[in-house]
Every structure is written in C-alpha cells, then in structure tokens.
TrEMBL record:
Family that this chain belongs to: Belongs to the LemA family.
Natural source organism: Rhodocytophaga rosea
Stretches assigned to coiled coil: 25-59
Transmembrane feature ranges: 6-25
Protein name: LemA family protein
Domain of life: Bacteria
Assigned keywords, A-Z: Coiled coil, Membrane, Transmembrane, Transmembrane helix
Keyword Protease: no
Matches recorded under InterPro entries: LemA-like_dom_sf, MamQ_LemA
Amino acid sequence: MGFLPIAVAIFGFVLLWAVVNYNSLLTRRDQIRKMEEESKELEKRRHAILAALEKLLSQLSIIDPELSLQLQQIPTARSVKTKQLSTDVKLRLQQTVGLQNHAEVDTLLNRLEDTDFHLYYAQRKLQQSILVYNKLVNRMPSRIVATLSGFKSVSENR
C-alpha cells in the first residue's frame, strides 16, 4: 500500500506537467500564426501605399527612372534594407521639382515610414517568437510532449 500513493503522485505530476507544456506550445504556435497574419497585413498596406504613390506620381506627370526603380525595389526588400530604401525614396521625392511641399505626397511618405516601422517591429517580434517556439519543441523534456502532440519546428524563412 505504500508504493501505490507514490506512483499515483508521480503519475499525476507528470500528467500535469504534460498538460501545461501542451498548452504552452499551443499558445506559442497560435501567437506565431497571429503575428504572421499581422505581418502580411502590414505588407499589404505597404504595397497599397506604394501603389498609391506611383499612381500619384504618374498623375502629376513626374517621370524619374531612378525613382521608379527605387519604388519597385521597396516591396521586395526586407527589414533594415527596406528602411534604407524608404529613406532614399523619401529624400529623392523631396528633392524632385514639383513635389516639394506637396501635401498628398508627404502624407503617403509618412504613412509609408510608419508602416515600415511597424512592419520591421512585427518581423523582429515574429522571429523571436519562432526562435522561442523552436527551442521549446526541440529541447528535452518538452520534445516528448511536442512529439506526442504533433508539434513541429517552424521555419524561420516564412
């Protein structure tokens, strides 16, 4: 009779630990999905701002091949490089004749800068969350719960 209560207590502890670990992994995975959606939404907003900027420039009949090239490069660039490209485009637009003190261009540029900041922050936060989740999934003893529950590592290149 003395061994049975000890075995039940140990089993209860292991079961409780597994449930807590499972909920932790589930919460982190859902958090990553939410951050990915937020990041995609910010990228869509950014593309819309760039499209509006290009449309405005074509309406104002401003043709600058270098500026057009920079505007096309912005959507494909990532993180810090993106911030530099956006800054370069902003300076180039401010120096372009006919756009100095143009309210609509300034508004679009400010929105682009704000979106770039939020996108950069969201991507950094997403990378950190993926790193923490992958550590949880790949380290023992959480790996046991992850394997039994079907949790897998998340690719950082998402």
